Amino acid sequence: AWVVDADGSFLGMYRKMHIPQDPGFEEKFYFTPGDLGYKAFDTKFGRIGVLICWDQWYPEAARLTAMQGAEIIFYPTAIGWLPEEKRQLGAWVTVQRGHAVANGCYVCAVNRVGTEGESEFWGQSFVADYYGQIVAKAPVSDEAILYADLDLDALEDHRRIWPFFRDRRIDSYGGITERWGR
Fold first, then answer.
1. In what order do the strands lie in the sheet containing 80-81?
2. Is residue 171 packed enough to be buried (19+ CB in 10 Å), middle (13-18) or exposed (0-12)?
3. Quick check: 82 and 23 in contact, CB under 8 A?
């Protein structure tokens, strides 16, 4: 993804790090995982991070992006359900709200609407604040432009009161780089 500021100036690039393979999303056969790492970009609206689609399920990706100073994390995605599976929407909303809380940032979860093949995209893009509260939400089936006022000064105060980064026990996290724990 090319990251551009409101005036169209190029800020940098992010390449999707996690590539899925599940029904309707056989991307591992077509794409290679990104190699640029997790980044945050200064814009006139604040410092943002962009994580793409399957990246949204990985708390490590959100944490590393927030550690780069992201105040707002955007998750552009195309997610929906197959006719036999209708429970995933709640998981998606919960995880995105959790990223906002655990990383003391705003999360903008952007999702497409409509259908493609057997997949029905559930729309419902939303913005969550650093307490996980949904402050703006788009409809299920109609395209929409979603606006939300984000108070970055309040966010800075919140990060001082809830110092998740300061109090991390990095000396105890060695196992996080292992594929499976024992």
1. 80-81, 119-122, 113-116
2. exposed
3. yes
